[in-house]
Amino acid sequence: MSKQEELKRAAAEAAYEHVRDGEYLGVGTGSTVNHFIDVLAERKPEIPGCVSSSKATTERLRAAGFDVVDLNSSGALGVYIDGADEANAHLELIKGGGGALTREKIIAGAARTFVCMVDDSKRVDLLGRFPLPVEVIEMARSSVARALVKLGGEPELRTGFISDNGHPILDVHNLEIMNPIELEDAINALPGVVTVGLFARRPADVLIVGAKGGVDVIT
Ligand code: 5RP
């Protein structure tokens, strides 16, 4: 395992502390989450099942023996555990590198506690070095892209990719996101935008950072 994967695994092990027996668990998407699912499979918590943010995660959870239910049938969700592409000091995030941002945002919004796990390469002072994913309705692809240019970004269509919801994604380069909430609202207001991968209105509640010196927990 590479050093970075070891840090992700350490963050995933620390995130396990937030799993509550008897409660449905929200599970995100990505390589850090895959480590977390490995931890779940090893420790076998007494949970009734999971709510998943992607087809890929659903497959892994089922293969590990966990029931996966729809958010509509889980009832109120306690804890949601996911990774991120960037995290700032306010626990605001860029997510969607794996393309699962829409379901991730829905589950994060429904959960009482959002626990985010990252390795320390994802911590930034200013969000935006990682291209900001924006999921769009296909017919609005060009109009949204032009509006994103006006907002100061350089949108690029993610080639060969369609989300689990059937939509394309624009990755917006060269943004320096000084005010994440303002930008999230501005992009959300563009007709045809399904979801922007800025998680500022609903940031993480707990950020678990795998670093060389150990795991940092920021709240
Ligand atoms: C998927 C995501 C992931 O959480 C994000 O891309 C981080 O992935 P990884 O853990 O593989 O670095 O938002 O849509």
TrEMBL record:
Keyword flag Isomerase: yes
Active site (catalytic residues): 104
SUPFAM superfamilies: D-ribose-5-phosphate isomerase (RpiA), lid domain, NagB/RpiA/CoA transferase-like
Alphabetized UniProt keyword annotations: Isomerase
Known pathway: Carbohydrate degradation; pentose phosphate pathway; D-ribose 5-phosphate from D-ribulose 5-phosphate (non-oxidative stage): step 1/1
Annotated EC: 5.3.1.6
Any GO molecular function: ribose-5-phosphate isomerase activity
Reaction catalysed by this enzyme: aldehydo-D-ribose 5-phosphate = D-ribulose 5-phosphate
CDD domains in UniProt: RPI_A (cd01398)
Function: Catalyzes the reversible conversion of ribose-5-phosphate to ribulose 5-phosphate.
Family indicated by similarity: Belongs to the ribose 5-phosphate isomerase family.
Subunit structure: Homodimer.
Protein known as: Ribose-5-phosphate isomerase A
Organism this protein belongs to: Salinisphaera aquimarina
Gene: rpiA
